[in-house]
Amino acid sequence: MKLGVLCSGGKDSLYACFLAMQKEEVACLITLFPENPESYMFHTPNLHMVPLQAEAAGLPLVSVRTEGIEEKELSDLTRALESAVNDHEIEGVVTGALMSVYQSSRIQRICHALGLWCFNPLWYTDPARYMENLRVSGFRVVISGVFSEPFDESWLGRELDGDATMLLSEYAQHYGITLTGEGGEYETLVLDAPFFRKKIAIQESEKKYCNFRGVLNVKRASLEEK
Amino acid sequence: MIIVVDPGIREESLGRDEFVNPVARIVERCGHTWKYQHYASMQDHEWTHASGIIICGTALKDNGFLEHLEHFSWLRDCEIPVLGICAGMQVLCMIFGGSIRPGCEIGMTDVKVTSPHPFMPKSSSFKAYQLHSHSCLPPPGWERLAESAMCIQAVRDPKRPFFGVMFHPEVRNDRVIEVFLESCNG
């Protein structure tokens, strides 16, 4: 079955892509680029890196601009999926939804209306096991945004390695954040994945941080041999 | 040991991660061992080695199991507790003389408890996650426990320990599975 993966550039969508590739054919990545950065349905910190990720993975990218207005966003997503059906003959969609009933129900409804399969391979996955699998399977993930106590500025650009994951577990226990960032406490950017032919190297980036909120804005990046 | 049955399009399909694993996580958390079993390769007397069976849901577009109900004929002789979730409830209804018809719900809906039972939340109504394109008419004699605006949401066989829920209890209604597992302890 040919599938399109809704991709935000973060760990969840690209790990879902990795899982989908083990069982079906991933034909393309699909991304909505919101013009409104406050869009609550699709997060934004490093969406502009998705084209580079698609190139690294050797996958075509279907991208559609969206104004980020609630109801408009869904028709934009419908348009993106239709375009993926026309251009890449996808029969189904994969998302990296972990527990968000809101997000996944809306995508399920669109897929149902378009007659597409919808898969959420990370749905209600065990958070600790997922974070472990992410690392051991060869993903390189950095924190690209923090939006919660107790993250300080040093987290921006920090690699999600064993030490960082252990610290996140402590934060989850003491500060009530989710280990996976499911609650929007942090966002991630994938620099390398087992299915990437090349890896992403960040040449220039800028940190913006104030009061437990901050983003790592990647200004220049390129692909390198692995 | 609990047998967790996957009625998905094929063994280890992508739907397993979404519809079987979250249920198995709850089974594990409750201290039970479990075994993955694709419905098409379930042996007739496999249930004799288990203390309970959960038949899981499938992707919204995956209704292939309805074309192969013969793989569920073991249910007629089964004597241990069975919980059918969504696709699993459709299977229970079809095997024992009920029927299904088109009826789609996606997302959180209100579910009203029509006949209080330990399997259902104690409140008179609760929110539940739906993902189905068919709804069920239960077999003759089965008790209806709950309903949504669209369809019957929970049923039980008064003669055998068989239960069906149309909603997905693994999402925000874990307790339904926990109570079922408690009933598997004898």
Strand order of the largest sheet of chain B: 2-1-3-4-9-8-7-5-6
Proportion of residues in helical segments of chain A: 25-40%
CATH superfamily of the largest domain in chain A: HUPs
Report the total helices of chain A.
6
CATH fold-level name of the largest domain in chain A: Rossmann fold
Number of domains of chain B: 1
Mean pLDDT of chain A: 93
CATH superfamily placement of chain B: Class I glutamine amidotransferase (GATase) domain
Oligomer: heterodimer
Summarize the main sheet of chain A.
Answer: 5 strands, parallel
Q: Number of helical segments of chain B?
A: 4
The largest inter-chain interface, given as chain pair and residues per side, is: A-B, 25 and 23 residues
Strand portion of chain B = 25-35%
Provide the gyration radius of chain B in Å.
Answer: 15 Å
By CATH, the topology of chain B is Rossmann fold
CATH architecture of chain B: 3-Layer(aba) Sandwich
Comma- or semicolon-separated keywords:
heterodimer; A: 226 residues; alpha/beta; Rossmann fold; putative n-type atp pyrophosphatase, domain 2; 2 domains; five-stranded parallel beta sheet; four-stranded antiparallel beta sheet; 6 helices; 9 strands; globular; B: 186 residues; 4 helices
